[in-house]
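Input.
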Amino acid sequence: MRTIAIIKGMAGFLAAIAVWELVRATGTIDSRSLPGIGAILQSMISGLATSDGLMPSVLATLRTWSMGLVIASILGTVVGVALALSPLVETVTRPIVEFLRPVPSVALIPVALLVLGIGLPMQLFMIVFAAIWPVIFSAKAGVEGVDPRQLETGRVFGLSRLASIWRIVLPAALPNIATGIRTASAIALVLTITVEMLVGRPGIGSFLENVRLNGLVTEMWSAIVLTGIVGYLVNGLFLMLEKRLIPWSAEHHV
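Output.
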């Protein structure tokens, strides 16, 4: 089954490449704006091989992304668990949460720039604000979905409330939390690159904006393709970690 899935995935990639080259060949889009796949891959490989090319930008993006994701994951888990365990906290914070959640994160960039300036704290704030929501609601759903019989068993064995949270609630909610973090990782990557493009922070985003302004179309597409590859690898890494570290997750037994 896994081999069949890989073959189907490769077929999808090949079909996309064929469509890309067909669009170039028919002149539907000017070939100067749509370089060939071979040229894009060659530019990407050469850019990763040079010390002043794509590699420093990728490393800068991944460094900022990972910092923001860690902060969002920790805060989101704590808040989500608190909301699920305390009806009072959930009632008091619900208006604030429902007000902030629909606010587009990029709309806060002017405010973040005004308050925090152009720097790492501003970028981390934007990443955390965008990525924290799926973690909060996944953690909340995971805790609320814990079987009450498990908690009752814990009380029978004399577990305190704190011990029950640590030994029963969190392990049971961990699959949901992991899914929320995996979703947040993609959102965090998007925000990291977006902020880099808008304010010139070091990373793939600023690299993209620089090559665009200089008319380096092939280099621009190579950075875009590399961004997609990074996102794909990040998602695959999280899936692998979930399977290894959370073997009791029902998602991986379907």
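The domain at 54-253 is CATH 1.10.3720.10 (MetI-like fold).
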